[in-house]
Design a protein that fits this description.
With 334 residues, the protein is α+β, with helices and mostly antiparallel strands. It is 26% helix and 30% strand. The protein has a domain at 3-59 and 200-333: Roll (T-fold). The protein is built from eight helices and 19 strands. The strands form four sheets. It has a nine-stranded antiparallel beta sheet. Strands 2-3-11-12-19 form a five-stranded antiparallel beta sheet, with no helix packed on it. It has a three-stranded antiparallel beta sheet with strand order 6-8-7, with no helix packed on it. Helix 1 (58-76) runs antiparallel to helix 6 (179-190) and helix 6 packs antiparallel against helix 7. The two termini are 37 Å apart. 45% of the residues are buried. Keywords: FAD, Flavoprotein, Lipoprotein, Magnesium, Membrane, Metal-binding, Transferase, Transmembrane, Transmembrane helix. Mg(2+) binds at residues 177, 289, 293.
């Protein structure tokens, strides 16, 4: 059930500390002028999810958003045996009929794969499985085995015809690098039909915002420190859109003193060793999600690659703790 919060006075600052699988964010929401807060949280797709809405239609907005969220999670979760992605993967080598939503997100995954020259690739699943990131039986693969499995990774081999999807035998789709952003965009679009002042959506650490706390306010988001997980490196200020972070602290294991994370370069089969985290700020959540993954796995190439995207903001934290950020964002270091 939704939680209806108490009234918020002009001088109250709500500090929302999000300790989630993704990254740590503090969001400062100011001056809601006694707008009532409506709130719901839970676990979907094995990740923490929360919806916060302020305004007259907040209760209805939260309810409808949650219903849409559950629907999309049910069809896009590759581990859910009733999902359409599971259906595609378990029938590789055959054409599979799926919904318009699934076609839409797969088409977007292919689009961002092309846009990033394959650094983002939704067919990376066999490599993640080989490293043990699915069953948590972590291991560094043998080079020969890795080279063999890399032949199963190629987004160009996904075929779509009308409502049908085909992947070659042995290939699997994993939308973990784009599904959260896709769902956020769908929910943010849905919010436009309600009389609300503002909304904060959090899916596994990726944040989407709607409206503004006040006309002269921005949303302040503090980006998690990749090594001091109860601290932050600085704040980014946005009016709209989404912030997504990919980091080597989310899912990883250490062997012989080397940290290996689940963000694998589809071209090499290995994680990169230069960057600890990449945050991407975009008006489109799906873009922030996919590109934070792509920029992370490509390493320091991301410092120049981001310029292909005019409205994109990027924050990179390197292994030596140096911070680089694109000049087109309002970012304040701690």
């Amino acid at each position: 059930m939704s939680y209806k919060g108490s009234h918020i006075t002009k001088e109250i600052k709500i500090i929302i500390s999000l300790l989630v699988v993704g990254f740590l964010l503090f969001l400062f929401i100011k001056n809601f002028n006694e707008q009532k807060e409506y709130y719901k949280k839970g676990i979907l797709m094995d990740t923490f999810v929360e919806i916060r809405v302020w305004g007259k239609d907040g209760d209805k907005a939260v309810s409808d958003c949650w219903e849409k969220l559950e629907h999309l999670a049910d069809i896009l979760d590759r581990f859910n045996k009733k999902s359409e992605i599971y259906k595609i993967n378990s029938n590789s080598g055959k054409w599979v009929k799926v919904s318009k939503d699934t076609i839409d997100v797969i088409e977007k995954a292919i689009y961002y794969s092309r846009l990033t020259d394959g650094y983002f690739d939704p067919t990376i699943a066999p490599i993640l499985e080989l490293w043990g990131f699915y069953d948590k039986d972590y291991k560094v693969p043998e080079e020969a085995v890795l080279r063999k499995e890399l032949k199963r990774v190629d987004y160009k081999k996904i075929q779509i015809k009308d409502s049908m999807v085909f992947v070659p035998k042995g290939m699997e789709i994993d939308l973990g690098g784009i599904a959260k952003g896709y769902i956020l965009d769908r929910l943010l679009s849905l919010l436009g039909k309600y009389k609300i002042r503002g909304a904060l959506l959090n899916i596994g650490g990726q944040i989407g915002v709607y409206g503004r706390p006040k006309e002269d306010n921005k949303w302040e988001i503090r980006i998690r420190d990749p090594r001091r997980l109860d601290d932050y490196i600085g704040s980014v200020y946005i009016n709209e859109g989404s912030v997504a972070t990919s980091g080597d602290y989310e899912r990883y294991f250490v062997k012989n003193g080397v940290r290996y994370c689940h963000l694998i370069n589809p071209k090499t089969g290995y994680p990169q060793e230069e960057i600890m985290s990449v945050s991407v700020i975009s008006k489109k959540a799906v873009e922030a999600d996919a590109l934070s993954t792509a920029f992370f796995v490509m390493g320091d190439k991301a410092m120049s690659y981001w310029q292909k995207f005019a409205d994109l903001g990027v924050i990179i934290v390197f292994k030596d703790r140096k911070i680089w950020y694109s000049p087109n964002i309002y970012f304040v270091k701690k």
